[in-house]
Amino acid sequence: MPDPASFPYSPSYEQACDRLIAMCNGDARSTIKALILANEYLEIELSALRTKASHLGAAARRARERGDAA
What percent of the chain has pLDDT over 70? Predict the structure, then answer.
């Protein structure tokens, strides 16, 4: 069985966890929901940035091709 992933200990992670749990009134289920929602938001943002980067890359390739043909 592989070793479980280990994350470096950071007091700031502990503080962030404590703050989030406090914001959710100590409710673990609400805290997990908040984390899932935040993760979904970040995934949407990442997807949008990847799409934008892809379009910019395609535009740059087209510009280079036009420059090479000239």
Answer: 89
